[in-house]
Specification:
The protein is α/β, with parallel strands linked by helices and 237 residues long. It folds into two domains: 186 residues, Vaccinia Virus protein VP39 (Rossmann fold, 3-Layer(aba) Sandwich), CATH 3.40.50.150; 33 residues. Helix content is 43%, strand content 15%. Strands 3-2-1-4-5-7-6 form a seven-stranded mixed β-sheet. β4, α7 and β5 form a beta-alpha-beta unit. The longest helix has 28 residues. The chain is globular.
Length: 237
């Protein structure tokens, strides 16, 4: 049951800048509440949609939200908004493109993805290409501005969501299951790779030089030497 918070979600995030319609907000909350996660968002901006989804997730199954954006100023504002809403602990903000985020989070298989970054055709193509190996069968993709009439105007280059999806794996392997506000919701019916486990973040480059040496050289060399000695001892026996 969605409840009172769902009905009031627009009021709860009214002070956070954003370009969502009320129908978009209600659907984001609903989807986040109902998914086991993880949730992946492309385009944090000031955190309006992230706060909505984090509140929905907290009211539902507690899904982790990972939100990516290239703008550090916007992400600082989003972090403050999430903290004010009491949901910062269940959100990971990643600075960079979707492709970069997925490279540092190998194995991530989001059950819900909100695509709200660069709305141009080329921007959407880039994000969709990065997502191809990450979205599992049954995974949901919600594209912002999918039904915006500006998609059909060739003179408006900033809005090309439909063109960015056309001829992509989304068009081939997903079903459009609904339109809400200006958003289009797709479900993947085929393709996708089975996740090999939880995402792994390589943070070794932030360690001290000594610890990097131990992790990258000394410890691997010692393991290799032990393996060689075991094989050598077995061959002599």
């Amino acid at each position: 049951m969605l409840g009172e918070q769902h009905r009031r979600i627009g009021d709860l995030v009214a002070d956070i800048p954003g370009l969502l319609r009320p129908e978009d907000e209600l659907k984001l909350y609903e989807l986040a509440q109902q998914t086991a996660g993880p949730i992946f968002e492309i385009g944090t901006y000031r955190g309006r949609s992230a706060t909505i989804m984090a509140l929905g997730a907290k009211a539902g199954q507690g899904a982790l939200l990972i939100s990516v954006d290239v703008d550090p100023k916007a992400q600082r504002a989003a972090a403050a908004a999430l903290a004010a809403a009491g949901v910062a602990d269940n959100v990971l903000l990643v600075r960079g493109s979707a492709a970069a985020a997925l490279r540092v989070l190998p194995g991530l298989a989001p059950r819900l993805t909100f695509v709200d970054g660069d709305h141009s055709a080329d921007g959407v193509r880039s994000d969709v290409a990065a997502l191809e190996r990450a979205i599992p069968n049954g995974g949901l993709l919600l594209f912002h501005d999918f039904v915006d009439p500006r998609n059909d105007n060739p003179d408006i280059e900033d809005i090309g969501v439909k063109a960015g999806i056309a001829d992509s794996w989304v068009a081939r392997e997903c079903d459009l299951i609904g339109e809400y506000g200006v958003c289009g919701l797709f479900r993947r019916r085929e393709g996708g790779e089975v996740g090999a486990g939880p995402p792994v973040i390589d943070a070794r480059w932030r360690d001290s030089l000594r610890m990097q040496y131990l992790q990258r050289l000394r410890w691997p060399a010692a393991r290799a030497a032990r393996g060689f000695l075991r094989r050598f001892g077995q061959s002599d026996s």
